[in-house]
Each structure stands twice: as structure tokens, then as C-alpha cells.
Amino acid sequence: MWLVQVGDPQLVVKLANELMSKHGIYLQPINYPTVPRGEELLRIAPTPHHTVEMMNHLVSAALQVWKDNELELHSIHSVKCELCQRPVRHDVLTARHRVVCDGRQCHDYIVEATAAA
């Protein structure tokens, strides 16, 4: 399960509704009292039955809904290797590699930050 922080009770419902009505994707909006006010979330709960194509559709749809609502895109998680502190290339990571880096394979999963990033 993944949680996407939205932080606004009306907006989280609006985003969930747009994902459903425009893209056929159901994400659960999480509001107070489940979370404190101001910490509203969208819950993403993939299953083994979701294909890579479905996941890619989710990402594309979510990006479109975010852009349509003029929302900022950012991560609340560290995107740097804890050992070498260089940016992590999430596009090449697999589930078994999503662990704390021990430095032995940094070159496989890390790229230098560029001016465009």
C-alpha cells in the first residue's frame, strides 16, 4: 500500500473523484477522523492482479489529475542513497533492491544529479 499526502479534505475527495470519473481508477480518500485534519491522504492498494500496464496507467492518470488541478509534485521521502548521498534512480530499482544501500551496488542504482533535475 502507498499513501499520497494531499492535506486538504475537499481536495482529496475531488482528486479521487476525478481519477474515477476521468480515468476509471479508484483510490480511497482518507479523511478525518482516520487521519488528523490537514493530513488527508489518497490510499493506493495494488494487488498481484494489477499489471504493469495498469500501474503505468495509474501513474499517467494521477499526473494528469495533479496537473489539471495545478498541484505541485514532490516527494516526502528521501531520494538519495543513504550511503553515498547521490540521487536514487527509482526507475531501475526492483522490489528486492528497495533496501538501504550498503554501497556495493551504488553504481547500478544511482546517477549524478544534473542541472536539469
Could you please describe the fold and organization of this structure?
This protein is of the alpha+beta class and 117 residues long. It folds into 2 domains: 2-68, Alpha-Beta Complex (Aspartate Aminotransferase, domain 1); 77-117, no CATH class. 31% of the residues lie in helices and 9% in strands. The protein is built from 3 helices and 3 strands. The protein has a 3-stranded antiparallel β-sheet, covered by helices on one side. α1 (9-23) packs across α2 (52-68). The two termini are 27 Å apart. The model is unreliable at 94-99 and 107-117 (pLDDT under 50).
Spell out the key features of this protein.
117 residues; alpha+beta; Aspartate Aminotransferase, domain 1; three-stranded antiparallel beta sheet; 3 helices; 3 strands
Strand order within the widest beta sheet = 1-3-2
- Mean of residue pLDDT? 76
Strand content: 5-15%
- Work out the radius of gyration: 16 Å
**CATH class assignment of the largest domain:** Alpha Beta
pLDDT below 50 for ≥5 consecutive residues: which ranges?
94-99, 107-117
Main sheet record = 3 strands, antiparallel
At CATH's second level, what is the architecture of the largest domain? Answer: Alpha-Beta Complex
Task: Give me the strand/helix succession.
Answer: EHEEHH
DSSP helical segment count: 3
Number of domains: 2
Strand tally is 3
CATH topology of the largest domain: Aspartate Aminotransferase, domain 1
Instruction: Tell me the structural class.
Output: alpha+beta
Fourth CATH level, the homologous superfamily of the largest domain: Aspartate Aminotransferase, domain 1
Q: So what's the overall shape?
A: globular
Straight-line N-to-C gap: 27 Å
Helix content: 25-40%
